[in-house]
Amino acid sequence: MTQTYVPLLVVALIALLSPWMSVRVFRGLLPAIVIEIVLGFAIGPHGLHFVSSTPNVAFLADFAFSYLMFLSGLELDFDLLFERSMKSAWPGWLRGLTFFLITIAISLGVSLVMLYLHLIQNVVVMTLMLSTTSVGIVTPALKEKGWLNADFGQETLVYALFADMLTLLLFSTYIAVHASNNAFSFLLVMVLVACFVFCYRGLKVLRRYRFLRIVENATSELGIRATFALILVFLVLSSSLGVETIVGAFLAGAIISLLDNRHSVLSHKLNSIGYGFLLPIFFVNVGMKFNFGRLGTGWVFIVSLAVFLLTMYANKLVPSLLLYRKFPMRQRAAGGFLLSARLSLVIAAAQISIQSHALSEGMANGLILLAVISSFISPSIFSRLIKGYTVPVQADQKAPAIVIDRNTLPPGWSFAQIEVTKREVSARRMRSLALPNDVLFISILRGEERIAPRGHTRLEQFDKIQVMGHPTALDAVRKLVGPN
Description:
The protein is mostly helical. It is built from 19 helices and four strands. It has two domains: 32-386, Na+/H+ antiporter like fold (Up-down Bundle), CATH 1.20.1530.20; 403-481, Alpha-Beta Plaits. The longest helix has 30 residues, at 151-180.
């Protein structure tokens, strides 16, 4: 019984040590997940042979693998993807799609040349693996340097989200068809997408009912329980349809992203469960299973890896230099280098490719090695290139702190807290409501959460909105969202 927990204890110690090493030893240049992979290899059977993976650790790692894809879906900001920016003539989805098409065109060109030279056997898998990026590295790097909420950071995030989303869906569809040698497998993926739409619509209606709010409390954690039930529903559906489970997990994350605020308490808890417990198990287990002895050998393999590494940077730098038009050239290059970081999806795709025989084990391990190298190089180069630029200060950051009371309000204005009770108002964006002019929304109270209202914010039944305005305008708001 004791030996059952020893590998898990070692994984927990590595998970505890890795963030400290990332910050204190490597000055933030090496992500914690890379350290977890390296330390996993060091203590594993192909390193010091201090510990081996057990069935319990392997099961948790497999589930963490699916949970990683769930978090990728949770990271999707649909407002960012589908809303038109005030400073750009193109909506986010079109900019992201253009960036991705340029990326995949370069990757396809290189893969076709490599196929012609008999250096690879599968063009599609190689093209998709070269085209991905890592949102898990891009987002923390932007946040650390303060660029996440600036125009440059939001533009970079759009490109990263689109690369992750489209590569995952295209790769999973291809693997499903390749494994069965039957184009009918594509329809099974579409069935899963149809289930995604059905679940989203059903949950959107269900969440309006008050009984769910009555059941929800600090001990029940209904949101967490419902989320894990949803993940398992899609994992079971994927397995039953013969589709890769990562697609189901990704779609489950996308549903939560659509239904819930990405910065809500629930999203924070789900990220904490993943990054605090499950994901370190996955990455350490990847390191424990990695075997340098199974890498390819010979000059063909070395040349192939060198070409792939150059392609991984070229297919992000070229579209970055073309599409980051409103930013200086060095800042464009910084975005391109950061987007060149690969890790999670390449590791996932490599493992699936080995199981489906789409790639040899040597080439798949080589691509994992390149992903680890890129995740070390890319954030470092980004930090150096972006260092000379100052993050634009938002308007609200320039102004001094102001205390709002009745003396600072326009004549005749007052405060009010109004509860949303009308179902027809729920789930509608605030900008689509016929709101009066003489009113200002301060915040929205949703349970224990306080939300800053925006035009794209969706109201929910039983929200409490805090507003100030002229009494006539406040009465109009009450009639609009309150009792009939």
